[in-house]
Amino acid sequence: MHMQSAPAGSTSERFIHRTIVRPCGLAGRTPAGVVSTESLLNGTADDTRIKRPKRAMGRFAAIAAVFFATCSYLTGGTEQQATAAAAAADAAAPVPAASSAHGPARLFVAPQGDDRFSGLIPERNAEGADGPLATLNAARDRLRSLRKEGGLPRGAIIELRGGVYSLPETLKLSKEDAATAEGPIVVRAFDRERPIVMGAKPLSGWTNHRGPIWKTDVRSQGFGTVYFRQLYFDGRRQQLARYPNYDPENPYSGGWAYVDGEPVNMYQEIPGENRNELVFREQDRRDWSRPDELEVFIFPRYNWWNNIVGVKSIDGRTRKITLKGNCSYPPRPLDRYYVRNALEELDAPGEWYLDKQDGTLYFYPPRPISAAAAYAPHLRTIIEANDVAHWRLEGIGFENCEGNALVFNRCEDCTVERCVIRNVGDYNGSGATVNGGRKVRVVGCDISETGNHGIALSGGDRVKLVAAEHEAVNNYIHHVGVFYKHGVGVSMSGCGIRAAHNLIHDGPRMGIQFSGNNLLIELNRIRHVNLETEDTGAVYTGGRDWISSRGTVIRHNYFHDILGFGRHGRQWVSPYFAWGVYLDDNAGGVDVVGNIVVRAFRAGLHLHNGRDNLIENNIFVDGKQQQIEFSGWTDQHRYWTNHMPTMLKGYESVINEPAWKTMRNMHIHPSQAVLPDRTIMSGNVVRRNIIFYRDPQTKLYTLKNVNLDHNRFESNLVYCGGPSPQTGYLQLDRTTGPNVLLNADFAEGQPGKLPPKWHFQHRPAEATAVLDEVHLPPESDAEAPAARAIRLSVKELKDAQGKASAAAVVSQAVEAAPGRAYRITAQLRADQPDTSVKLLAQSYEHKAYFWAKEKVVSVGPKWQTFDLVFRLPQPGESGYHEQMKSVAARFDLNSPNRTLWIRKPSLQPAEMLDPWRSWQAIGQDRGSLVADPLFVDADRDDYRLRPESPAWKLGFQPIPVERIGPQPDLPRATWPIVEAEGVREKPIRTIEVR
Known about the structure:
- The protein is mainly β.
- Helices cover 9% and strands 35% of the residues.
- The chain is built from seven helices and 73 strands.
- It has a 14-stranded parallel sheet with strand order 1-2-5-24-27-30-33-36-39-42-47-50-53-56, covered by helices on one side. Strands 3-6-25-28-31-34-37-40-43-48-51-54-57-70 form a 14-stranded parallel sheet, with no helix packed on it. Strands 4-23-26-29-32-35-38-41-46-49-52-55 form a twelve-stranded parallel sheet.
- Helix 1 (11-21) runs antiparallel to helix 3 (59-74) and helix 3 (59-74) runs antiparallel to helix 4 (79-92).
- It is elongated and about 120 Å long.
């Protein structure tokens, strides 16, 4: 028989799919209707997508009946005739058994189902005597029974019809529910329907309370013992009644009260602070009838994250609020907060309050109460799986619960795929949480409006370096951390975990937070994060245990518009204090390769005392303050001393394990990590990167406490919008004038006293500084010449009040010009090796300004010449002050129980090499270029390189930009992704606290 082929997308093609492919269960995950004739005839087409029950005759006969009916249609019959024939064949098909040796058991669940039914058919039969089950709990129990009866050798499929399922209790899965690789259990949406599984109940019985406020009795609706803390209306989480009101037009910097008092530096320690008290301002005085029900939502001190703490008491006289528990840190003046859960504050659309004494819910709906459904959560978790293997959840919506929506504890080979998880979680509740186990995947899901993290993955053995193999892949995650502002898109902790192809935006803190080993973060797109906190990044890890996050790779990601939010003086501003890639607190052994980092406010990359990290083949674009920042510690830094016990414990827990032998530089024990200059950062390599920024006044690098003999920059391509990148380094070209210090040879003065024109700037209680006659080593056989020097001695480095203080001797200030360069030199000798001395150039006016440039050196028993090259700031530069007209040379003795001699101090005007040539003169960035990288279109964020780019000559490798972010060829809940509105559309406004 000759058949005319139907054109793609034609009525004929759609008809064939509707009448043959879908009724016969032949539609797979390929585009509709794409099945082979061979698979139709031999029965090998995917039968895991059966859409309807079969009732009477064999599979081949049913297909044949439809086939010939369709042939009739294509050769002149009507669609109605062919449809009728298909329906007749469908009616003749056999009823499937729940379990079969030839395929998986199949059960159906529907909102209109009944747990007394068999669950073998997807809808009620004509008699109403059988049909789908009503709950997932019943489907689970039915599978348990089938397993006891004869097992489930081919597994099972539970198909959910579209609609809302309000679970009566958490669906708990245990070891007895575990399946096998040959017979997995799949819980999925029926056909293309959209089931939504909730941990909440619908609310009804609304009556008007007053004006726009409605009320209902929730105890009569099953909430007798449940004091819920969230309410959902029209698919959105509503605001618990609060003061000040939430500002939907300015959701991040608006709607706050502020702790009373004058602001102080957040890093300044204040003795006697309490973590459970705050003082409100007079304009925020309120009258609340039930203060013991109130909660304070506050960002205390550091603005790293928030606390939600109940109120114990309010003292109207002192304006002090005492809390029932401690905040993470003491609340400080101008910390932002609001107070929630007061009936008196129910005055704005979307606000609600639950009276726990009588069970009355009060609600100010944002639209008519009858126009949409309201739900309140009665479950903390929707699905909890413990010790379960080979389960899949596909194409299901999970919404409205107080805690974690999905929890997998010690599970193996389980998958959450193409699901939508939203409006879930409180301060401790996330979208999907994985603890322990192996090979648990969250793939292709849309996750939003979570109380804490979007996805939290943990597992693996960090000591043996056994991978958990958990994955978060191809997900769209946004608006996380609704209640816990340390909540992130993906949290990774453990060993051998992967996050790839995710799109993450609009979160209060990092896009991805990770801690552990051999983690893989690749091909993700992260934008517009860190919207409510500071000191953060697009991706972040710490290393206080010495071994985190060694072996981790961050590659081929696109991070852009990394904002940050914080207080500057009396203003709350954004962007503020945020990086792109942030390797914090001694993090080591991380490869950052092939990433594109654009518009990170503080810098594209920050290493905070990082070590053994490889920064290679990245593109860093338009950092606002600098492009790369290294902030090192010395052995006196409190982080180094405080965390040493933890670092020793971490190092010694793994150093004898064979798997750790290949980790970079693990032969260095923490106790041996301090370098001769007292710094610690070591082993970092920055090479073959493109660094592109268009403001020539912005810094290329900012490096503090970094020993450049142990950290390398090489073969980078730099474009800075000007001729010389600002490296922060100035090397002497030549001196151009005489020594201008007064009494520099100490000719004036008497031994035993400080010479004129010199004085103490800081004087510890037991410090002395006097003119001394010294004998220099002879240069020939002649007698050693005598010379004059200042002898500075100190015992304890404490002043008369017991405060820490270096012994500091300074010259009289001499005239100097802003913008001019100078060189300080001196010959120094100490009575003991490794004596720490700081050379400073300082300029100040009492109570007006203070500026200094410093350099720490190690001085020993032999005379050595040390120098400090600097340039006074000029107008428009950081540190400049209009009264800056002079400079002094200063010498600080920083080691106790030592003596230092200072001879031949000098301050001379000088000329410098430009910052780039200075940087190269000290051995860094040799082989690097300053040139335009020739992007395809940087103004449109197209950072592909043209064929003629000079980067190729440096060995730069292409970045697979087309594979970054979610991909259509991987499972997806929705495609194309329509990105939700957020801070990009409603930028954060600056707020000044008055």
